[in-house]
Amino acid sequence: MAFANPLLLIGLAAILVPIIIHLFNFRRYKTVYFSNVKMLEDIKKKTKREQTIQQLIVLALRILGIAALVLAFAQPFIPANGQKNKQGNLVTVFLDNSYSMEANSENSALLYDAIDAAKAIVNAFDFSDDFVLTTQNFSGEESHILNRDQMLEMLDQLKISSNSHAFDDILAFEKNTCTNSQKSNIVHYYISDFQQNNFDIAKLKTDSSTNTFLIPMPFEERSNVGIDSCWFLSPVFKVGNQVTLMARVHNYGSKDLNMLPVKLYVNDKQKAIAAIDLKAGDYIDCRMTYSIDETGTQCARLVIEDSPITFDDELFFTYTVTDNTNIIAIQDKENNRFLQSLYGKDSVFNYQAMPYTQVNYTLLKNCDVVILSEVPKLSSGLADELSKFVKSGGTLLVFPAKEMDKSCKQFLSNLGSGTFGSLVKKELKCSGINTESIYFKGALENQNEHLDMPVTLQHYTIGSGKSGSETIMLLEDGSPLLSVYPVEKGKVILSAVAMNDEYGNAHRHALEFVALHNIGIMSAMQGKLYNIIGTDQMQSIPLRSNSGDGSISLKARKSKMEFIPEQRSLGNETALYFHDQVQDGGFYDILKDGAVIGTLAFNQNRKESDLNCYTESDLKKMAKASGENLDVISADTKNIAKSITDKLNGKPLWLYFLILSLLCFLAEIAVLRFWGKPRALNEERVAKKNDER
């Protein structure tokens, strides 16, 4: 047993008072002579021995009562296991204010109950203790040591946050803040709903110098429906075409839903609607088809109606519809008439040809496809610009020349794509096509029908790339006729034959025409439809950072908040780094010199949508298995202060000693008042009866 106020034990000296009174309060018996012995019957008979016993009992009760009262004021307690007596505490409180804490509780909302619990924790400690508050905000104020008043003030200002950090990051942020305190006795409190997909109790590495407490917030049965993600089945958008959008909607609740409407808005105009049936705990991929009727950046959003968790009821995304695909053909001195017929006479493409000795590098910035047609050699400047073009997302289509020097093969090797090998002068037929490739998928109505295949008179062998390849068309000897190699964000497509009659009829054949035509169209494939706040920290845009004098900024359409992100030049692109500047979902316009040059979409992290949480009993089982310095406290705010004291300081005993003191004093009064009174009354009755006789 230990004492919170051991100095008050000096009060035990007060037990000397009843002892002194007892020693100096002896009554001396006197001899009284009576003429009539009958008078002795009227006197209360009380022997010296009985009086001594009574006095000793009274003395014992007084001593015990005073001692119990002094011990009660000294606040005795039974120390908790392993608890050390240290001066001063560092109290850290993590309060989860993510979107899942919007759910209803028995009183109001989980967040408000969590704030009340945090205040009870703070009030259970002294003004001399240090405090650390950690939330999902990771704000600058949370990186400082606080006193009790500052801690309470920050709790009063706390609101729901759009952030949802991993538990590892939360512990690292909290640990970094704790290094600013000199207190050696550290107590950690974690107040949350403890979602199963984000909490890992194994990350809490406790030791003998710290105490860690989990405070789960009790919640009512919760249901939530959220839009998880979306994607297009076709990666290219042209005016007049129909596109199919897939939206994944997840039911995280325990009840089935029928005919839930899912609406699609494009530029604030409703384009499609679907009604879906969702089983409990399941998801469905909803298909929505609509026609494209505008060019430029399209700002779209999917909407459902669900409460009380609403942050995942809307999914924002953007995509770009272009009028034409910009294609530049870099070729030998003569203009290739087959390329001119394929791309130059189609209104879908903006086609421009130039000799390899007179390349306008500034045009590459806005180009989608670059074609190297029978170029015998590459200058270092052209090779460098083409490398930047491919790595930043461009498509490079290469047709071999009769005589290629080492610069061409070295360029392809440096990119990590396949390279041209030897020239094989042998007539071969195309043995098959990859119907699953995006360049052929959907182009053939009957894939089982016997197809007329192109024939090559000679072809170059093509080696494998560093990051793999996809063969679009295959020759009889197993070598590729047309292959695609991914290179960072872009791709390199190599043809084993050139676009002339010396290599056969492949360049005139309909099958290769389909592949090459789709290569031109598919080069305008979309990048990311949206960014996830807190996860996607960077997105590149097709813009040189040194173009123009002004910097790039992002402006939220809803809140009108504007900020300048970190910017880095990546060849023909500029990489934008958002860090923690984006907090709210929605559309953000990209501004350059005050003009809007594009729009980005941001959405909240959907991991908060899953409301499956650990219960208090689950946490207790895990805490028991993890270590003796990890415990669980009930979130009942009426008793939480007492629970904290009990868990931290041990079992308090002051109330028991106070009750014992009161019982002693009551017993003393009872002894003094009623000792011997029944016998005296009985004797008095006997005396009256004798008188009557």
Count of DSSP H/I helices: 13
Helix content: 10-25%
What top-tier CATH class of the largest domain fits best? Alpha Beta
Largest sheet: 9 strands, mixed
Oligomeric composition of the shown chains: single chain
Question: How would the global form be characterised?
Answer: elongated
User: What would the average pLDDT be, to the nearest integer?
Assistant: 83
> How are the strands of the biggest sheet laid out side by side?
15-14-16-17-24-23-22-19-20
SS strand fraction: 25-35%
Superfamily at the CATH H level of the largest domain? Class I glutamine amidotransferase (GATase) domain
DSSP strand tally: 34
Q: What is the terminal-to-terminal distance?
A: 66 Å
Structural class: alpha/beta
Count of domains:
5
Which CATH architecture of the largest domain is right?
3-Layer(aba) Sandwich
Residue ranges: pLDDT <50 for 5 or more in a row? Answer: none
Q: Radius of gyration, rounded?
A: 43 Å
Q: What name does the CATH topology of the largest domain carry?
A: Rossmann fold
Name some characteristics of this structure.
alpha/beta; Rossmann fold; 5 domains; 34 strands; 9-stranded mixed β-sheet; 5-stranded parallel β-sheet; Immunoglobulin-like; 693 residues
Structural notes for this entry:
By secondary structure, the chain is of the alpha/beta class. It folds into five domains: 2-79 and 653-692, no CATH class; 89-219 and 614-649, von Willebrand factor, type A domain (Rossmann fold, 3-Layer(aba) Sandwich), CATH 3.40.50.410; 225-322, Immunoglobulins (Immunoglobulin-like); 327-522, 3-Layer(aba) Sandwich (Rossmann fold); 531-603, Sandwich (Immunoglobulin-like). The longest helix is centred in the N-terminal third of the chain and has 26 residues, at 48-73. The mean pLDDT is 83.
